[in-house]
């Protein structure tokens, strides 16, 4: 029973984490098109998004990672090829989350938007690949 509850929690936390990352990617892509620094009203929205990132997205990431480790160790999956591939994608998502959070912080502090790569495709494709790996367990 505990395994199923942690599994449900893991899925919910992943949804919050990925949803927050998608919102960040959209906002950062839009901010990159601004001709200069954000206006006061835009800064207010960026600060609100940053607060959501700190209060929801980042804790969801940490909880998803912790619950995922519990699930993998409970089921004895460490050493499985599919889990190794999934962990690589999860670590990639965590790195992208850190990059996006840093860019969002700089924007919210009033810096001009940096012309960085649009990470939205990666933020969308990586979770889909993770779901496929978990559902199919191909190797």
Verbal overview:
The chain has 139 residues and is mainly alpha-helical. It has helices at residues 2-31, 40-75, 81-108, 120-136. The longest helix has 36 residues, at 40-75. The radius of gyration is 17 Å and the shape is elongated. The model has no long low-confidence stretch (mean pLDDT 93).
State the shape: elongated
Largest sheet: none
Number of strands: 0
Structural class, from secondary structure content? mainly alpha
Give the % helix: over 70%
Instruction: Spell out the helices and strands N to C.
Output: HHHH
Q: For the CA atoms, what is the radius of gyration? A: 17 Å
Number of helices: 4
Name the average pLDDT: 93
Uncertain residue ranges: none
- What portion of the residues fall into strands of 2 or more residues? under 5%
End-to-end separation: 27 Å
Short note summarizing the structure:
The chain has four helices and no strands. It is mostly helical. The mean pLDDT is 93.
Secondary-structure map:
Layout: H1 2-31, H2 40-75, H3 81-108, H4 120-136
